[in-house]
């Protein structure tokens, strides 16, 4: 007797960024029929206009900084001048060439991701998608079009990302007043870049452009740059900004930004004025959820328009999930990817572990970098009802490898429960801290004790030796 035909589970994914991409791959891997709808290109803003190009620009700035700091290691980059006297040459940066490389690389990454989708059997549709409120997705392949393709779905994943927040008092024009998506059209290094906002995005770009040669003024409404980071770590970065010659204006809130004939003027709430050639507005982002039909589908949103999701990325509507910056979760590409995979695994009944944000590793790509995972000192100090914790900090100035490579500005800080010695968090401020934090992320994820971390062999000499040194200092008797 012939076996009855079993229809595949149908999945529609809106948005091809990290969350949507991973959701589509996971669905295909588990045997579902998957359609991915993306309006710009696979990879979304994270690949095309955000993470990939910005971190590539920052890597270029890091290379420039390494050349400039090479004198610490005894490397002399002199050319002969008059009478044979050595003259140190200037480090030249061709921003147009840099931007061309960044955008070409982003485009190539998008193409690679598209091929991965196609190889996995995912149907990719380019166009604008929205929910119709009946368990289907309507797709218009022309902006503002009235003709729609209808995609029936058993499960829908919304992963449409976010866009830079724009203020009416400082409207970006793409030439002088810019969002971070518009920086890659600059033909040359700005003469004087005023950065409004000292969060992660503002600090990263301020650091990069100052290193590339621009005069930079950072307007910060807070007392210290990077207010969301470990205070000791933020202090290291602010000292580095000062060393680079950046002008940091603390406790200074911008009121308006206006374009002039030759540049821009930033007016502060206290009446002061800052003039520059260009202004980068780094004042947060807004979710791309407007016009998606979420309200008519019954999906709950926050007042800011973010989609409410639980720890398995499901909304209040059982068949609809969401991932990435459009949700009220942690706005990181790595979290979006995990949300996408978790959503599909949950929808298809596979084993799934709810996402614990305390296990998420994050990084600020300044120079040096700040990497964090788990509990932070501020939260631990405020949570008086929690068991006592212990902490130990190892400055990189005592680490032999850091001395060898000339990057001693930074530290490794470790947090553990006093009673059990279980590692609950850590902060690393160092060159390539983003690579070093993984060992602490493993320790936090798997609840290792400081003794277990200390018992692992670290290469000597190495930066990771600072991690084992910190763990050893917290040995419980």
UniProtKB/TrEMBL annotation:
Protein name: NAD(P)H-quinone dehydrogenase
Domain of life: Bacteria
UniProt similarity note: Belongs to the class-I pyridine nucleotide-disulfide oxidoreductase family.
PANTHER family: MERCURIC REDUCTASE, NAD(P)H DEHYDROGENASE (QUINONE)
Pyridine nucleotide-disulphide oxidoreductase dimerisation domain location: 361-470
Organism name: Leucobacter allii
Residues covered by the FAD/NAD(P)-binding domain: 10-340
Cofactor(s) needed for function: FAD
Keywords, alphabetical: FAD, Flavoprotein
């Amino acid at each position: 007797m012939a076996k009855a035909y079993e229809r595949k589970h149908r999945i529609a994914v809106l948005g091809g960024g990290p969350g949507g991409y991973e959701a589509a791959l996971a669905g295909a891997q588990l045997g579902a029929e998957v359609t991915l709808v993306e309006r710009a290109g696979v990879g979304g803003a994270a690949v095309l206009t955000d993470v990939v190009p910005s971190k590539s620009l920052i890597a270029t700035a890091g290379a420039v900084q390494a050349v400039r700091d090479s004198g610490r290691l005894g490397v002399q980059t002199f050319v002969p001048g008059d009478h044979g006297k050595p003259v140190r040459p200037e480090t030249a940066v061709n921003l147009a060439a840099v931007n061309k490389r960044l955008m070409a690389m982003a485009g190539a990454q998008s193409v690679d991701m598209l091929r991965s989708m196609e190889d996995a059997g995912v149907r990719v549709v380019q166009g604008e998608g929205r929910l119709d409120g009946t368990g289907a997705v309507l797709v218009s392949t022309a902006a503002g079009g009235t003709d729609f393709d209808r995609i029936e779905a058993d499960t829908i994943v919304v992963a449409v990302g976010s866009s830079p927040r724009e203020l009416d008092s400082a409207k970006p024009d793409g030439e002088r007043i810019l969002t971070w998506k518009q920086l890659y059209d600059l033909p040359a290094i700005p003469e004087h870049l005023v950065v409004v906002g000292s969060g992660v995005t503002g600090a990263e770009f301020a650091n990069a452009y100052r290193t590339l040669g621009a005069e930079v003024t950072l307007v910060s409404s807070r007392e210290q740059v990077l207010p969301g980071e470990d205070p000791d770590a933020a202090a290291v970065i602010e000292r580095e900004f000062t060393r680079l010659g950046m002008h940091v204006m603390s406790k200074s809130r911008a009121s308006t930004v206006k374009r002039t004939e030759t540049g821009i003027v930033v007016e502060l709430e206290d009446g002061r004025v800052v003039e520059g050639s260009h202004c980068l507005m780094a004042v947060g982002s807004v979710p791309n959820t407007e016009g998606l039909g979420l309200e008519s589908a019954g999906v709950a949103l926050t007042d800011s328009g973010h989609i409410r999701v639980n720890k398995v990325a499901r909304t209040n509507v059982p068949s609809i999930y969401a991932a990435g910056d459009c949700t009220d979760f942690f706005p990181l590409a790595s979290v979006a990817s995990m949300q996408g995979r978790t959503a599909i695994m949950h929808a298809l009944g596979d084993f799934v572990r709810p996402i614990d944000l305390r296990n998420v590793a994050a990084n600020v790509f300044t120079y040096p970098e700040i990497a964090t995972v788990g509990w932070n000192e501020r939260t631990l100090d405020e949570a008086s009802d929690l068991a006592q914790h212990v902490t130990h900090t190892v400055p990189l100035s005592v680490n032999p490898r850091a001395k060898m490579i000339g990057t001693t500005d930074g530290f490794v800080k470790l947090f553990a429960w006093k009673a059990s010695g279980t590692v609950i968090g850590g902060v690393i401020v160092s060159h390539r801290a983003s690579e070093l934090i993984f060992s602490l992320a493993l320790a936090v994820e798997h609840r290792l004790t400081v003794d277990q971390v200390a018992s692992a062999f670290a290469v000597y000499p190495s930066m990771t030796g600072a991690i084992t040194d910190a763990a050893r200092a917290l040995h419980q008797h």
